[in-house]
Specification:
Elements (H helix, E strand, L loop, with lengths): L2 H4 L11 H32 L5 H6 L5 H21 L3 H22 L3 H21 L6 H5 L4
Helix pairs in contact: 2-4, 4-5, 5-6
C-alpha cells in the first residue's frame, strides 16, 4: 500500500512509530479478516448441522420458502465465514455475510423493537464485512495466491 492511500505521509505525533505501523499494516488486515471469518463460521456452525432449523424464523422475517432461505443462511454463515477467513472469493462471501447481518439489524431494531442496543453488534459486523466487500482479500489471501479476485 502506498503512502498516498494509507495516510502515512501525515506527520505522526511519535514519528518513530511510522515503521511499526507500516510493518503491521498487512498483518492487521489479515488478523481482522481471519477473526471475522472464523467468528462467522463459529456462529454458523450450529446452523450447518441443522440447515433447515431456521425455516420458521426466516419465514417470520418474510423470506419464503423458509427451508430454502434457512439453508442459504446456514451456508452463508458457515462456508462464507471459511471463505472470508482464508480469503477465497472474499468480496462475494463478505457481501453475502453483510447482507445477512443487515437483515439481523432490521430484525433486532425494527421487528423486535430493540433499537440500536439490539442491533449494535450486527451493525459492527456488517461494517467489518463491508470493508472486505470493498477491499477484497489482500496479498495474503487465497484470491491473491491464485491470481484471481472477484
Amino acid at each position: 500500500m502506498s503512502a498516498s492511500t494509507d495516510n502515512s505521509s501525515r506527520s505522526l505525533f511519535v514519528p518513530a512509530l511510522g515503521g511499526l505501523y507500516a510493518a503491521l499494516n498487512t498483518a492487521s488486515e489479515i488478523i481482522l479478516r481471519a477473526v471475522a471469518g472464523i467468528f462467522l463460521t463459529v456462529h454458523g456452525s450450529h446452523k450447518i448441522t441443522d440447515p433447515f432449523g431456521a425455516a420458521e424464523m426466516v419465514e417470520g422475517l418474510g423470506f419464503y420458502p423458509g427451508a430454502f432461505w434457512s439453508l442459504v443462511l446456514a451456508c452463508t454463515e458457515f462456508f462464507g465465514g471459511i471463505f472470508i477467513a482464508i480469503g477465497l472469493l472474499t468480496r462475494p462471501a463478505a457481501f453475502a455475510g453483510m447482507f445477512v447481518l443487515l437483515v439481523t439489524v432490521w430484525f433486532h431494531w425494527v421487528t423486535m423493537g430493540e433499537g440500536f442496543s439490539g442491533a449494535e453488534k450486527s451493525l459492527l459486523w456488517a461494517a467489518i464485512l463491508f470493508f472486505f466487500v470493498i477491499r477484497g482479500g489482500n496479498r495474503q489471501s487465497v484470491d491473491a495466491r491464485i491470481g484471481r479476485a472477484f
